Amino acid sequence: MVYWKTMRWTFAIKLGLAIWLGLLANVLVSGIASYRGAIRLIETNQSVQHTYSLLAEFEQADSAISAVETGVRDFLLSGDTGYLDPYRAAVPAAEQSLVKLRSLAARHHEQQEDLRGLATLLEEALALSGKQVASRANRSTLSGDVGKQVALAREKTNRIRELLGRMKETERTLLFRRQKIAEESAEASIRVVFFGTALALLLGILAGAAIFRNFSNSVATLKRGAELIGAGNLSYRIDTGNNDEFADLAAVLNNMAGQLGRARDELLRQVGLTEAILQSIGDGVAVINEHGEFLIYNHAACRISGIPEGRFPAAISGRYGCILHEDNLCPVPVEEMPLARAARGELVDETIVGIRPPPPDGDNRGIRWVHVTARPLRDGQGALTGAVAVMTDITEQRTAFQELKIRERLLRSVIEAMPVGVCIAGPDGAIGMINAAGTALWGDHRESSPYGEVKAWHWRTGDPVLAREWVLKRAILNGETILQELIGIQTPGHSRKAVLLSAVPLRDSSGNLNGAIEVGEDITARISIEEELSRANKELEAFSYSVSHDLRAPLRHIDGFSGLLEKYAGSRLDEKARRYLDTISASAREMGKLIDDLLAFSRMGRTELMSTPVSMDGLLRDALDELASETAGRALEWEIGALPPVHGDPAMLRLVLVNLVSNAIKYTRYRAMGRIGVAGYRDGAEAVFRVRDNGVGFDMKYSEKLFGVFQRLHSSKEFEGTGIGLATVRRIIHRHGGRTWAAGTVDEGAAFYFSLPWRNEDSR
Question: From CA 745, how far away is CA 577, in angstroms rounded?
Fold first, then answer.
């Protein structure tokens, strides 16, 4: 009873029940007769299917045995382990096929004996192949027994194939007999079905009238529900009151209505999300339909237009603010507005307009400059349905651009007012800008050609300047930065000039070369002054040498006659007179030493400077050997580090070390333990050297005075010397292109530094 209450009375069940009630008598008569045939047909079909399964498994076993034989044979013959891959895959396949055959043939008594024989042969064949593989793997070849092993394996395989063939033939015989039985059963079943179908068709016509009314009511209910759902009432649900196919269709429609409702909710959510995104972006977006009426405008569009959202016009033909042309600030007619043009099918790209909203709706601000892009909107058939415009406020960028132009004009004014020639060239070398000083330096032709008819030569050597050697060319092509390169030039109609050129490459934000700037300074007058100064210095040195040489004779006379006077009247002179003579003689000798040092200092400027690799460690050892007499009997603590090698004049640099180390020895004389340190290190493009001591030191406010000629911070009674040693050091280092400086503290010691340009092996 519970089953009948819960049973689902579908339309098919109702129709079938009506038919089968009429056919009950026919079923009772013909059903019993056909039952046995149907059972027999089923059993026969199962037997046929079982036979096909056995035949397929026989083929699988045969294939696996063949793969085992082939893999073992190829491995035995070649020794290549690559042939064992199919063998290893086939062994478990063969064993699995044997298991399946045992299962399938369990009810076939006629196959049991052959199946046991097959299992035995298969186990022997697999065991033999395993032994052959292991034996072949343990030695490189099987020498003369390879053929025997292959034949033995083939014999095992052939016996298995013969047994499989006999078993397959047995199954094929059974298959033929079972197929014959199946055909007979099928023919009997067809006859029964034919007569039963004819009777069922007759009774079905009678049953149709009985269920027609139920069918009509269900269709009417479905039609009414579909109309309501189609009209948009997605909450309506159809109830046919039946448990049949119409109820299934009603459930489908109800489900469809639910899905449409959810889709509508999702669409509304997406619309809300899109609107939120649209309102949050910084660019103004406005959409109109084909009639020019606004469909969408976001907050940014209102802000850029300067019109409150509640007062935004309904259409572009309404009061919409004053849109101005960029060039003349005249109002743009409505039909020429970007949205109106796009609504007619035009593509409006990157148009700049000014917007000045009128009162009372506007915010009374100045003109806002807007970058507008507008596109037409079309439906699926290509018909115009409106337009969309994107507006970007570029007022700040435009203001910045105007400021940039003002700065550019200012920069041009500054460059134009510079007393040196300035040329700016593009990546092709063409001069894009030249100031008045540059035109005066190069001539008017420089604006059309970087080189023109200018004759140029290297100032020091006189060799002509080739086109590829111009500093502007090198800066553009190679990215070089050239500073103060001296050349001589002669432009048409002008005299020869000495020009000091510098060039710097110009790069964009990505680092790509896009030109260069060249600065040229006419130093012809300076060169003339320097040449005059050089001649004057040479004359001054010659004069100093002559004066010093002429002073040496009187000093020798004073010293000589003082000695003669002491010998001649020595016995008659008292102690005071002797002291006077000693002072005269010592002063003459001191004056002679000063003159000798002055001559050495003068010669230092005239001596030709050599430039060879110099080991500063070796020069320091030579200097210490030379000063050994000064360190005898002294308590000195030396701190000497490794010194970097340099290029220069060895004799002059040795004199630098001798002077600095000698000073350190001298000014630590009154220390119980004198400490002297010599060190050197690389500092960028320079090699720096330091001589430090713990002597009497000096006040830093006199640091520059130390390197002057005859400049002394201590009296000769305290420390001997002429005051030319440090001046000589500075002159030598400056001639090498280096620097000198000192640091010290009174009564705590001093440190003297000098630097030389660094030059490694690659730079030579």
Answer: 43
Answer yes or no: are the C-beta atoms of 488 and 499 closer than 8 Å. yes
Q: How far apart are CA 535 and CA 129, in angstroms?
A: 109
Whole-angstrom CA distances from 580 to 190, 558, 565, 629 are 164, 13, 12, 31
Q: What is the pLDDT at residue 621?
A: 92
* Tokens describing residue 405: 């132009």
If you ran DSSP here, which 8-state letter would residue 243 be given?
A: S
Paired strand residues for 637: 675
377 exposure class (CB count in 10 Å sphere: 0-12, 13-18, 19+): middle
| φ and ψ of 496, to 5 deg | -70, 145
> How far, in whole angstroms, is CA 758 from its chain's centroid?
35
| Strand pairing report for 421-425 and 455-458 | unpaired
For strand 674-683 and strand 636-640, is the pairing parallel, antiparallel, or unpaired? Answer: parallel
Cβ atoms within 10 Å, residue 405: 10
Does residue 741 or residue 68 have the better pLDDT?
741
The Cα–Cα gap between 472 and 474 comes to 6
pTM: 0.37
C-alpha span between 206 and 195 (Å, rounded): 18
Q: CA torsion 334→337→339→343, rounded to 10°?
A: 70
Is-contact 91 70, C-beta < 8 A? no
Instruction: Give the confidence band of 615 by pLDDT, cuts at 50, 70, 90.
Output: very high
Instruction: Give the integer Cα–Cα distance in Å for 675 and 211.
Output: 128
pLDDT one-digit tens code per residue, 464-516: 888 788 888 888 888 888 888 888 888 776 778 888 888 899 888 888 888 88
Place 752 in a pLDDT band, splitting at 50, 70 and 90.
very high
CA dist 516 and 737 (Å) reads 29
Structure tokens at 431: 């001069």
List the one residue out of 695, 693, 694, 687 whose CA is nearest residue 642. 687
Helix (H) or strand (E) holding 342: helix 338-343
DSSP string, 138-197: HSS--GGGHHHHHHHHHHHHHHHHHHHHHHHHHHHHHHHHHHHHHHHHHHHHHHHHHHHH
Cβ contacts of 280-283, under 8 Å, gap ≥ 24 = 283/390, 283/391, 283/392
Is pLDDT larger for residue 19 or for residue 523? 523
538 CB neighbour count, 10 Å cutoff:
12
Q: How far is CA 131 from CA 124, 503, 725, in A?
A: 11, 87, 101
Average pLDDT in the chain: 75
Whose tokens are 């917007």? That residue is 355
Q: Which two tokens stand for residue 447?
A: 């604006």
Instruction: Report yes or no: 552 and 595 within 8 Å, Cβ to Cβ.
Output: yes
Instruction: Using pLDDT thresholds of 50, 70 and 90, give the confidence band for residue 753.
Output: very high
**Running DSSP on this structure, what letter comes out for residue 470?**
S
Nearest partner of 643 among 694, 689, 683, judged by Cα: 689
Query: What CA–CA distance (Å, rounded) separates 379 from 451?
Result: 63
DSSP output for 1-49: -HHHHH----HHHHHHHHHHHHHHHHHHHHHHHHHHHHHHHHHHHHHHH
Q: Are β-strands 674-683 and 739-745 bridged in parallel, bridged antiparallel, or unpaired?
A: unpaired
d(CA 12, CA 215): 11
